[in-house]
Design goal:
Largest sheet: 7 strands, mixed
Distance between the termini: 57 Å
Radius of gyration: 20 Å
Number of strands: 10
Number of helices: 11
Order of helices and strands: HHHHHEHEHEHHEEHEEHEEE
Strand order of the largest sheet: 6-2-1-7-8-10-9
Length: 269
């Protein structure tokens, strides 16, 4: 039997998801909701979304509520996605007057998804800053993708995105049933700390950071929520630190707590 969600059930789910993540599910996401949650309803043998919603809204359904959030959170990512940011970071780190050469470098990948972004940053830092201390915090709302990040194991499609030289240097090649897959090298994995963080909630005592990647997150929020997120993130940055946002995003009309250096690249005064 094909599962469908009624208008009232979708509105219930939309409010629950918004409370948990700050993200507003559009009406166009009904098909996505049914597709991603259908297996969970069958797993629990619920006859429809009303029973499932009753369950995840209750105290006993807290773990399942997190599963639903994980499934509904968009996690599209790639290694070295939006390469202009990595080129900019490399050039900045190589400049003696950049302000990023003061102490141990701290970087935050604030929506790390399954880890391709923080591992891309880690490979870059290993190349540009040999022998220098640095650390990356990789955070996300989804506990599932954080587990993937900690594991650092990627299939052939993702593995092929890593430049050959970096792949040879920083990845372990899979064999037998893992043929074509890569595992990020242990020293690289040990440089990453993973943590579940909801950017819409008061941020924990983290940082201060020299560099923050906050990419392809703000597109899901309205202007007040964007302002709250960016100002919260900026409050965990060092003066002179850099903030990278997605290529389809802008902070124009959102906040002036960071200053635009070039499109999608900002700096904290």
């Amino acid at each position: 039997m094909e599962l469908t969600i009624s208008e009232s059930e979708f509105e219930r789910l939309r409010k629950l998801f918004h409370r948990a993540s700050g993200i507003q599910l559009a009406d166009s996401k009904k098909v996505l909701v049914c597709g991603r949650l259908a297996k969970r309803l069958r797993h629990h043998r619920f006859r429809g979304f009303r029973e499932y919603l009753d369950y995840i809204e209750g105290a006993q359904g807290q773990d399942e509520r997190q599963v639903a959030i994980d499934l509904l959170t968009t996690n599209e990512t790639h290694f070295f996605r939006e390469p202009r940011h990595f080129d900019h970071l490399r050039r900045t780190l190589e400049r003696a007057d950049s302000g990023l050469n003061r102490t141990a470098l701290q970087v935050w990948s604030a929506a790390c998804s399954s880890g391709e972004e923080p591992y891309s940053i880690a490979m870059l830092l290993s190349e540009v800053l040999p022998g220098r201390p640095w650390k990356i915090l990789a955070s996300d709302l989804s506990t599932k993708v954080l587990a993937d990040t900690r594991t650092g194991l990627y299939g052939p499609t993702r593995a092929d995105e890593i430049p050959a030289g970096l792949r040879r240097k920083y990845c372990l090649e899979g064999t037998d049933e893992y043929q074509g897959m890569v595992l990020m090298d242990r020293p690289l994995r040990e440089r990453l700390e993973t943590r579940q963080i909801n950017l819409m909630e008061p941020l924990p005592a983290i940082g201060p950071f020299d560099v923050v990647f906050l990419r392809n997150v703000l597109i899901y929020f309205d202007v007040p929520a964007k302002r709250r997120i960016v100002e919260g993130v900026a409050g965990r940055m060092k003066s002179g630190g850099y903030l990278y946002i997605g290529h389809s995003e802008t902070l124009g009309g959102v906040t002036d707590c960071v200053v635009q250096e070039s499109p999608t690249i900002y700096r904290k005064p």
